[in-house]
Amino acid sequence: MSTRRLTGSANDPHIRRRYRAEKRFKAYCIGAVGIAFAIIVAFFTDIISQGYTAFWQHQVQVTLEYNDRSARLGQFALDSDMRDIASRGATRSIPLEMEDNPDLMGTTDQRWVPVKAEIDQYLKHGHDLPAELRQQVDALADSGRIQSAFNTRFFTTGDSKLPELAGIFSAAVGTLYVLGITLVFAFPIGVMSAVYLEEFAPDNKLTQTIEVNINNLAAVPSIIFGLLGLALFINFFGVPRSSALAGGLTLGLMTLPIIIISTRAALRAVPDPIRQGAFAMGCSRWQVVRDHVLPSSLPGILTGTIIGLAQAMGETAPLIIVGMIAYIPEAPSGIFESATVLPAQVFTWASEPQQAYVEKTAAGIMVLLAVLLTLNATAVFLRRKFERRW
Amino acid sequence: MYSEATTESPETTESVTAMTTGQTDTSTQAQTAGTAEKNVKVKAENVRLWYGQTQALHDLNLDIHENEVTALIGPSGCGKSSFLRCLNRMNDLIPSVRIEGQITLDGEDIYHPDVDVVQLRSNVGMVFQKPNPFPKSIYENIAYAPRLHGIVNSRRDLDELVEHSLKRAGLWREVSDRLQTPGTALSGGQQQRLCIARAIAVNPEVILMDEPASSLDPLATATIEELIDELKDRYTIAIVTHNLQQAARVAGYTAFFHMGEIVEFNDTDTLFTNPREQKTEDYITGRYG
């Protein structure tokens, strides 16, 4: 340590106190980060611990008999003692199968079918079952006729009133349709508006007003966009209620300001000398934008668009108003058909009373989060990869 | 058309020798210029320019001679860049700018309503202070404008034009094997020569240079100056510079700007050795500015 005493205006007698204050402030900030991180960890732990079991499902080995009785009601294909264990959904379609394929009559088939949700919950979490049934299940489990398997059905079927059969497929397809429409609607309009405002528009009262209003739109609560979508698309243009088209257009309204704002930021990041150089080469303004400004700002524009879409994807409130929070068991096959989306599916499951839907809800959230994280990671990747240093 | 392509000066590193030769050339030309006046390529008469309410240029008159380098010198904010940007109407891009007076190129008023600004700018090229190659390949940087203006028809002509322009800018030897790499990956001096190559690719008559070497190191600066000296055989060049030695080395004529006026305009030799005005003398001797 230096023994020399420094003098001068910077020689503050309270210097130690200043350092202490600095340390204290730093500690507060670290504390804040810690709290934020703890919340995230708690959130993920909770969701994953509740939801991971939904990706497994217990199955029971049954023998299906195709006979006169089962041609009338699928349940009769099962031994009577199995009827309380195997899911009704497993035998529901047998009469139809037999109608399509009369050769099945008189044959038997051994296969694994999902167990009823209550039994699944009993095996997973030990939830209560009537004593008689519990003994039967335990016996089957001991003899190896009940096993746990990866629940592919969760990803291949739509919603169901039988929790053991419910899946997210129809919601995922609905989300794809809705996001596709949002993208097709909001991306060209948003990018072109931004290009006009940033590159062509004169700076006057009118453009300033438009600018302020677009910025305000981005802060409007999403449910209000739902009301606008209801009034405009469904009531005025007659778009079918609950359809992917209605939902996509409504979310498009919501995403539009986000795309405009991020596109303008990306355009503004292109340095002016590039424009000047192009102008000096005899480019018209449109050529400057098309050949120089847009290619340079494309990564930024795409990043903004992906983030806007990710936000739209997680949106539920405006979709309630256009009727997309509904029981939709079948995946939509077109944009005019009733559809639901992932967060809406989560919402629907969360309001179901059966215990089995709790884990479905958590699993749905996990899928939704995984897709959102993938989208955001893509945005970050694009930004990193194509980021230009001038 | 491009038969007499200028080959690169082999001794880029021995720029000092080249510079001295360049200087003697200039002074002899300046002497002849006094007797046999060269053609006036660009003529500015009573040019006044306002940024909003602020007048930046006051009644400027200047003749820029064909196949000569004319340097515009003066302290910062004296209006020399503003004036330069009048010559290819780059000031049109700033909404608040108002220009009065007349600027003619080969006797034609460039601010006449019939004049197409795109054509004007392909006749009057520009090189900027900070090298600003497009974020595209070296090839594309040069090929872009000729293709845009429909100067070349076939791929082969374009290849030839790119090669020719790069040779003319003294860059061919350094980049011929990597034409597809990004122009922005070159060094600062190379980027600036790429910008010059880009400017001459559309075969302009006049090249405006706005402090083309001010962001470059001394060696790259020397290369650029050599290049300017070579280019003046074919092009008329107006160059804004803060570097008085540079003006003395490359320019046949020099205009001294001060507070939006041209204080003195003469051949470079006379202006630097025997200035008429006290202000000019003060500036070139470093008393202010």
TrEMBL record, chain A:
InterPro entries: DUF3333, MetI-like, MetI-like_sf, Phosphate_PstA. Signal peptide: none annotated. Residues 172-379 form the ABC transmembrane type-1 domain. GO terms for cellular component: plasma membrane. It comes from the Bacteria. One of its GO terms (molecular function) is phosphate transmembrane transporter activity. Its main location: membrane. Keywords: Cell membrane, Membrane, Transmembrane, Transmembrane helix, Transport. It is found in: Cell inner membrane; Cell membrane. The chain crosses the membrane at residues 25-45, 168-197, 217-238, 244-267, 306-328, 362-382. It holds the Pfam family BPD_transp_1. CDD domains: TM_PBP2. It is a multi-pass membrane protein. GO terms for biological process: phosphate ion transmembrane transport. Belongs to the binding-protein-dependent transport system permease family. CysTW subfamily. This is Phosphate transport system permease protein PstA. It comes from Halovibrio salipaludis. The gene is pstA.
